[in-house]
Amino acid sequence: MASFSLPPIYDNEDKSWGPSSSTVPKVFQDIPYALHSKADKINHIADWSTESTNAEQGPGGRNARQGGTRGGRRDAYGVSASTAAGNAFGYVHDEDEKSFSLVDSGRAGAGAARGRGSGLFQNRGRGRGAARGSVGFRGGRGGFQAGGARGDGRPERGGWGTYRGRGRGGYGGWDKPQRVRDWSITIGPEWQMLEEITFARLQKLNLNVQEPEDLSIHGTIYSYDKAFDAVNTRNDKPLQIIDMVKYNTTTSDDPVIHSLAEKNEANVYTTDAILSVLMTATRSVNSWDIVIVREGDNVYLDKREGGPFDFVTVNENAADPPADTDKPDAINSPASLSLEATYINQNFACQVVDQTKRKAFKDPNPFYSTEETEPLASCAYRYRKFDLSLQAEQEATDKVKMVVRTEVDAYQNKKDQYITIKALNEFDPRAQGSGKAPDWRSKLDASRGAVVATEMKNNSAKLARWAVQSVLAGAETMKLGFISRQNPKDPQRHTIVGVQSHKPRDFAGQMAVSLANGWGIVRMIVDLCMKQPEGRYVLVKDPNNPLVRLYAVPADALEALEEQEEDEEVDEDNQDL
Fold first, then answer.
1. Residue 217, class by beta-carbon neighbours within 10 Å (0-12 exposed, 13-18 middle, 19+ buried)?
2. For residue 572, which of 9, 201, 288, 471 sits 20 to 30 Å off, Cα-Cα?
3. Which string of b and e fits 517-556 if b means at least 16 CB within 10 Å?
4. pLDDT of residue 85
5. b vs e for 161-183, b when ≥16 Cβ sit within 10 Å of the residue's Cβ?
6. pLDDT tens per residue across span 71-120
């Protein structure tokens, strides 16, 4: 029977694991050995699955944050500094690492977003025929006409915040597709990113602003028709198509703004539509962009013609928002719904006013010319000055004053009691992207609070902007209409099923909209722009992350982008023909 003898056991005099240096056999003396202290916990001897992760992430990676101790003496795997000799066993792909370079995800995402049916609306106001007609929605350079659909009945292409689905397995909430939203503007390779600001940082800002000073008011408004307050699901009214013109000119093209700038009334100029988006930026999901022009000591916040500020979103904040599709006749895609909601708002505001009762202000509409043949929609432009200065800013040169062009849609009771008119639209409560909204025709009268609460959840960003716009304009009341399709399959015919009245400040309070936080965001962005030299800048909301980025752009970058988009649009129109 074979005998068995125990191998020699070497005691470690250093009180550590493994043989000591004096007792290691000669055959093993040239082999490196990772020493461990007996006080250390050995989590694993060898983890071959994390070999490359250790090389890529390094001490500051995710594993370092998970395994690090309070004293910061552990490495990426939580092993103490006494095991530093173990690096001799680590294999690093030296050549592979040197050949690898990180590409800016923002630019990559933006570059891929310019395909057909993605990004923002591409119609540049060349008068494509609307199947049902609509209210003219004119831009500053003459030119954007928002219509319900093309002349052939197909919805307009493009869309604000379209999506690309990517499947993801699992169950419950994890089986929903991961959607990647598109950028509202293409980030050019020559653009220089100056600042990246997260929403968590924006939410901490705060600035109290006093009541504004009224500078002037221009235009003509009509009286609100109180008969629409009695509209309900049993006494509904069809939405009419009214051909009237309403302008949405950008800041730099406003002649009143130019005259106020010449008088040095303020050093920041913008409109309520742009300012409301900036003040409620932390509620945004879709991408948007603001063009910032620095001229001398003045800063102008502009929008791009035909950009996201010219359209109304639908269910932007829903847990399962409307998804994009490749079908050209999709009526519930983000693009089609946004265009539908835009002309619903315009026609509803024109229908609920009494055109026999009007109030014309001393200063006429600054954008309407005598060559126009279509009548003007009820709208008054109210120019107001806000003081955004801090208490520590005593000198006049340090103060920040902002002139805002606000809009009121009508008046009621007394002629100086202004109101704003907005509309929510229901497309199909059973369709994908409806946000689990209840059927308005069966629930609006009996459970109006539940309907409004659902809309506040699914359209948090849109309703917050409307409330802020009403507060900026000094409106006493905000009229909120509920517009539903006559047939869920027909996006051209709609019915007014209800109208609600809200106090703008109370409505903002119900949605937890902090005006002080909004003014803090505005002041922060203005301060960033004031520190920059004269030129053009673009503030962009990242479509897939809760943050905004400030870019410095060449002077002709946006004009070249517009020309490129127009050329692409002409080519696609020719292909459709």
1. middle
2. 288
3. bbbbbbbbbbebbeeeeeebbbbbbbbbeebbbbbbbeee
4. 39
5. bbbbeeeeeeeeeeeeeebebbb
6. 443 433 333 334 433 444 444 444 444 444 444 444 434 333 333 333 33
DSSP per residue, 341-382: HHHHHHHHHHHTEEEEEEEE-SB--TT--TT--SPBPSEEEE
Partnered with residue 216 across adjacent β-strands are: 383
Count of Cβ atoms closer than 10 Å to residue 320 Cβ: 15
Beta strands in 121-162 (DSSP E): 136-138
Contact present, 352 and 173 (Cβ < 8 Å): no
Nearest 10 degrees: CA dihedral of 5, 8, 9, 14? Answer: 180
Instruction: Give the separation between CA 275 and CA 386, rounded to whole angstroms.
Output: 12
Closest by Cα among 394, 250, 351 to 310: 250
| Nearest by Cα to 554 from 531, 540, 537, 529 | 537
The residue type found at 37 is: S
Helix 460-473 and helix 515-530, axial crossing angle in degrees, nearest 10: 80
Q: Which residue is associated with the tokens 């390094």?
A: 58
Report the pLDDT value the prediction gives residue 571, as an integer from 0 to 100: 53
Torsion sign (Cα): 61, 65, 69, 70: positive
Residue 155 — very low, low, confident or very high, per pLDDT cuts 50/70/90?
A: very low
Distance CA 166, CA 180 (A): 8
Nearest to 536 by CA among 306, 290, 305, 308: 290
Question: Residue 149 in contact with residue 132, Cβ under 8 Å?
Answer: yes
Phi, psi torsion values for 484, nearest 5 degrees: -125, 150
- Asked whether 129 and 147 are in contact (CB, 8 A), the reply is yes
Q: State whether residue 117 is helix, strand or coil.
A: coil
Cα–Cα distance for residue pair 441/332, rounded to 1 Å: 19
* Rounded CA separation 540/182 (Å): 12
Beta-ladder partners of 494: 485
Burial class of residue 463 (count of CB atoms within 10 Å of its CB; 0-12, 13-18, 19+):
buried
So where are the chain's domains?
26-98, 107-576
